[in-house]
Specification:
Blueprint lengths: L1 E6 L3 H4 L7 E6 L2 H7 L5 E3 L5 H10 L5 E3 L10 H6 L3 E3 L6 H16 L2 H9 L17 E5 L3 H12 L3 E5 L22 E4 L13 H6 L5 E4 L8 H9 L5 E4 L19 E3 L11 H18 L14
Parallel strand pairs: 1-2, 1-3, 3-4, 4-5, 6-7, 6-8, 8-9, 9-10, 10-11
């Protein structure tokens, strides 16, 4: 019998569909999870507290398959999991649809000055003119990251007549390679970050990249806060060297209440809510997990596989 240690939160979605070869053991608290973790051949230890998740991963000495709703697992003990030969499936693509919608929303909020419209309503003030007059149609977006999220962002922006130029390791027609995009930054109205958090992407947008952007260009980050040199970004926004920053992610999270980003008119901080702006996250995750359970007992490959060496 294969033992799976799982959160009771997903029990109604998962239990009726599990293969008979898998015996679920449900936890309703951190203490129960930690007590059950050493028994787990399959573990799904997701919590809001990542430090506790890490403890469970370390304690799960019989683990063969780790599942997570998180797409980015840079917080996990990846070296240890790789050493133990654990197969990892992550949440890549689970939130792609809602995050891609969030990107479009953020861009429209900036283009139409919608934050000022909301503030005017709060003051009961009838505006005589629109605070934002930019149209997305005809603008150009550089898209770094063409995974599940990036692919949906591209499709949605192209439907709004935005010219989207992706960056790929092996570029095709109309795309840029990893060594090309920095020299072309000044051509774009939007720079959209949808890359995974890896040592390669850490700080990939710094002072030099921000200086190369148009003074009207807007940075949209739905990747990870560490992808951007945040101090350099604050400096660029304060000097109005770029047009704005739409930040669903920051460093650290939560952002301290006294941080400069909160008060900059050209910075929008959306508290890492893009993936949570939906009602189907757990249902999608449970459906994927159940399908992977069927594959696991059948000896078939699981999907999507997270590669600890690459970090995604």
């Amino acid at each position: 019998m294969t033992i799976a240690v799982l959160s009771a939160l997903v029990r109604p979605l998962v239990e009726p569909h599990l293969p008979p070869e898998i015996e679920p053991r449900w936890f309703t608290s951190v203490d129960e999870m930690m007590a059950l973790a050493p028994q787990a051949e399959i573990g799904w230890f997701d919590l809001d507290r990542k430090d506790v998740m890490v403890e469970a991963m370390r304690a799960a000495t019989s683990l063969k398959w780790l599942n997570s709703i998180y797409a980015g697992l840079d917080f996990a003990p990846l070296d240890l999991l790789a050493e133990r030969g654990v197969t990892i499936t992550n949440g890549a693509g689970i939130n792609a649809l809602t995050i891609s919608e969030y990107v479009v929303m953020l861009m429209l909020v900036h283009a139409k000055g919608y934050r000022d419209v909301v503030r005017a309503q709060d003051r009961h003030e009838w505006l005589a003119d629109s605070p934002g007059k930019m149209e997305l149609a005809g603008s150009r977006a550089l898209l770094l990251g063409m995974g599940a999220i990036g692919g949906l962002v591209k499709t949605r922006l192209e439907a709004l007549e935005v010219e989207v130029v992706p960056v790929r390791r092996t570029p095709g027609d109309g795309e840029l390679g990893p060594d090309d995009w920095r020299g072309r930054l000044g051509e774009f109205d939007w720079v959209i970050l949808a890359v995974p958090a890896t040592p390669e992407t850490d700080g990939m947008i710094g002072a030099a990249e921000l200086a190369a952007m148009k003074d009207s260009a807007v940075l949209v980050n739905i990747a990870r806060g560490a992808v951007v040199d945040q101090e350099a970004l604050v400096a660029a926004l304060e000097k109005k060297a770029i047009g704005g920053a739409m930040l669903d992610v920051t460093t650290p999270e939560p952002l301290p209440a006294d941080h400069a980003l909160w008060d900059l008119d050209t910075a929008h901080v959306t508290m890492h809510l893009s993936g949570r702006a939906q009602s189907k996250m757990f249902a999608r995750s449970a459906e994927r997990f159940v399908e992977n359970c069927r594959r696991y007992v059948a000896g078939e490959p699981l999907s999507p596989i997270f590669d600890p060496a690459r970090g995604y």
